[in-house]
Structures are given as C-alpha cells and as structure tokens.
Write a sequence for this structure.
DNA sequence: GACATATGGACAAAATATGTCCAATTGACT
DNA sequence: AGTCAATTGGACATATTTTGTCCATATGTC
C-alpha cells in the first residue's frame, strides 16, 4: 500500500540513528544528508521537509513492525506462543531502537505530534491481526472464549492494553518479556477449553 | 590557585552530561540552565558565554584529574605502582567520562579550540609531578636511571608519550589498563638497580 | 548527443540562540 | 516591617543557524 523506493529507504535508515542521537529538534537536514552520504539538495529531492521525512521514517518503522507481527502470527505453534512472539516482535521493532536513547521521550512526543495517525492506524491493524488470530483459534476449539464471556476483538484489545501497561511500568528490557510471558500464561490457562483441563 | 564557588561548580557538574549528550555545538545555554535547575539569566551571572563556561568546565576537569594524580603519587608503594595508578587516575578523570559518547570527537575538538592552553598546562604539570616522583625514587636508589642513561624529565616525558600512544591505539577501555601495566613492568625491569636484580 | 540524477553554492525567509537588561519576586536577616 | 542580595521571567536587538528553493554545473547512462 505504501511505496518507498530504495533511495528513500536508504535515507531513512541513515536518518534513524541521527534522530536517536540528537532527538528530533536538534537534528538538522544537513545532519541527515551527511549521515546518508548525499547532499542536502538531494535530500530535498526525496523529502520536502524534516516533518515529511520523519513521518516517512515513522511509517517505515511501523510498517516493518506490523509486518513482523503478521508474519509471526502466521507461523505454527500454539495461539498464545504466536501472540506472545508477535507482541514481542512489535515492541522490538518499534520501541527497542529508541529505548536506550536519552532522546526517547522527545522523539515519542515528536511522533505523536507529526505521525499520530500512523501510530493509531498501526494499532488498529495490530488489533485486527490479533482479533483474526483469536477468532480462528476459537473456531478451531484451541481456545474457548465463552469460558471468559468474551469476543475476539475484546480480548485482542485487552492484550494490547496489557502490553501497553507492562511496557509502561516495566520498561522495554527483559522485564517486559517476563511480564508478557506471565500474562500469556494467565491468558492460556483462562481460555483453555474445559475438556482439556486437568 | 583557581577558585570556583560552589554555585559555579554545581552548574558545571550539571553541564557536563549535557555537553556529552549533545556535543558542544548543539548544546545551548538554555539546555544547561535547565539541567542546572536555574534560569538562563542566572546562568549568565556566573558565566558570560558558552565558551567561558566550557573553559571553566575543562579547567575543572583538568584540575580534578591533576589533583588525583598528585594524591596518588603521594601514596605509599613502589614508584611504578604509584605512577601506574596515577596515570590511570588521570585517564579516568579526563577521558573516561567522554569515552562512551558519540560526541567525544566533537567535544575534544572544541576543547582544543577553546581550552588548548588548559590542556597544555595540565600536561606540563603532569610531567612535572612524574619528574619529581622519578627524581626522588632515583635519589632513594629505588630506581637507577643511569642504567638507561636518562634523566627524570626525559623518562617522565617518555611515560606520558607512551600513555598517549596506548590510549590512541588501544582506546580507553580495559585494554588501556593492560597496556599501561605492561609498559610499567618493562619500565620497572629496565630501571631496577643492578645490585637488586636476579 | 540526449537524458536523468546528484551536487555545491547562493539565496531570502524563518527559526533559534546569544547576550543584555530590568522590573518583580523571593527569602534570609535585623 | 524593612533591607538586602540573589534569582527570576520576560523583553529585546543581534548574531547565528536552519530551512526550503533555485540553478548552473558536473557525472554518469543509454
């Protein structure tokens, strides 16, 4: 749906570490051009402004992450293993690169200012993917949603919300992973069909 | 000799991490004021310009380091153990804080531009301290400089030069420490008075 | 040669930073 | 309450940097 030629992609890849290093505000188009090994004039041939470039970068990162999620959900394995791996992949792609940076906050704020829609769209798509995966697992009797009186979409929303909360309080390190696994274990136990339980 | 009131010191301590994070060029007086928890107006009461502030910071760092060197050389122990510890202390104080930063190069360049004299003075004082320590050890017969046909000042200069070289090629990590120890072992073996040798 | 693409440099306009100033505020001390 | 010194936000002119645009000139590629 979104097309990005290889030149633009190369520029965005070069721009990311620059934004991480300096933050959005202190990063100049000259900084990015230098990092990408091209002239400032050429840079403006691809992106009309720093805002546009940043949006493209955000879109690229979000697209890659949601792509990873779809791919991960499509693998074999139990539904919760796949969801767990997918959610971790999502965080790895979108959050981890900024996690260690002093400028993470400022960059996140810039993203909310300039690319809120992209972030919102991506979240919608994430929920969609989770919902579809849950619905299919429900149909296959791998899980039993009636046991918790819920619908796939509602459960998908809960999972995403819980991930947000865990990320928020536990950070993005290994603690996040542990929290995710625990949450998934709870979810698995709660939705295992009764005839399969011990 | 150089007086710095506690307020200025507090400001400089707050400024250091800011310079490390953004580099000299991208750091603004507003950034520093914010980090120090004071107003920009107050900041200008202490330092008349960013250059002056940077010089004061450089002076502070160099003074602290040379102070550590003097203290370390004054301890008990063999002359080479003391010199080794002193040189490591010098590097730790002056280089290590910047070592990990992406902006180390730019900051070093800024220092050479704005505070070359301070750096040169400090080096002179370092050589002086080393020279005095070596001369005393020579007088005490702990070492025998005639064995290598040298004078304290010349040997001190060699040590400092070697440290520079080791830092330059080995970096500032644990490799620097290893290189330093090896060099000191060589030096010790070479200058041990013959009547004490195996 | 024709063509598309990249470049350095120049440029005005916009945005930021610098350094200075002052009236108002704060808080400690008498 | 009154004095004093220190700190502040905000205004300000100036200087510097950044932006976004343009073009004449390379630098290949077909």
């Amino acid at each position: 749906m979104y097309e990005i030629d290889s030149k633009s992609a190369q520029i965005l890849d070069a721009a990311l570490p620059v934004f991480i290093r300096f933050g959005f505000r202190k990063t100049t188009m000259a900084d990015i051009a230098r990092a990408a090994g091209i002239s400032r004039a050429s840079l403006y041939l691809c992106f009309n402004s720093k805002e546009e470039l940043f949006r493209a970068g955000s879109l690229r990162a979000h697209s890659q992450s949601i792509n990873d999620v779809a791919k991960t959900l499509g693998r074999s394995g139990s539904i919760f293993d796949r969801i767990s791996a997918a959610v971790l992949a999502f965080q790895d792609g979108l959050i981890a690169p900024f996690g260690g940076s002093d400028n993470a906050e400022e960059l996140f704020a810039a993203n909310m200012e300039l690319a809120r829609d992209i972030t919102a769209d991506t979240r919608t798509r994430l929920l969609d993917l989770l919902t579809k995966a849950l619905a299919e697992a429900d149909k296959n009797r791998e899980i039993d949603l009636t046991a918790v009186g819920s619908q796939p979409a509602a459960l998908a929303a809960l999972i995403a919300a819980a991930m947000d909360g865990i990320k928020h309080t536990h950070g993005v390190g290994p603690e996040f992973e542990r929290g995710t696994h625990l949450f998934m274990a709870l979810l698995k136990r709660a939705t295992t069909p009764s005839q399969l339980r011990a």
Q: What stands out?
A: Residues 38-42, 45 of chain B lie near DNA strand D (CB under 10 Å from a C1'). Chain B touches chain A through four residues (CB under 8 Å). The mean pLDDT of chain B is 92.
